[in-house]
């Protein structure tokens, strides 16, 4: 089944929204098993992925540009609008690990809307997903939670040589050592609807980050946290929020999360600035207790594509699982 709006569309796995939802419930069940495996390895319950809250602050602000193009006005996102924002920066592993280890990093923003509701924006430090869809994502997660020695043979059996090579390459490039979370860029990877403007992807990029007060030892297991708060002690940490608009399915696909929307096809448009003010206190324990999800958003900003639609079921099950634990 195809759901079309204007010149863009969504294609439902299994032929209908109902069939897709049944599959997503099965994916959620399988991801809970992955979460349980990670909990056993870590000695306690955690999120299925992004288990370690590296930085958590509650005093940030997202300010939209005074000259925001009229075409990008949507909902509460208007020229000059400002939103109190909670920020969570994390390591992507489902088991809490040292900040010194190679990993993908995550950024999650929780905006407080004028009506008191919340709007979450989630990103990671690599522009595309390692997988094309939810079925691949769950299979890779299951393989990763088992013996690493057998990971490649299991991926070959599941995906074949070409897809295994692509997935493994993306995982290898995305999981790297990080100098500072204040120096990273973070991409949505999947698309969301942006009101009447239609599908967009979005990205946070660093703006003139202050230098750290002192170098943090490279082997410090909390080095990224110490670095970020050292920078905050010297000045604000700021990021630019950009969006990239849908052009055509051939170059800016909605359903395939592994395809990058190239800048030559759709340029990045600056829309807002995220500011974590100088001296903002650490609030990792408070922020760690919050649930973030792409579907925590008004309808005009609903997530699009197979991976994002699956996240609705999987994130809800995961949050319930680690909170219960």
TrEMBL record:
Pfam families: Catalase. Residues 45-141 form the Catalase core domain. GO terms for molecular function: catalase activity; heme binding. This is Catalase core domain-containing protein. It comes from Catenuloplanes atrovinosus.
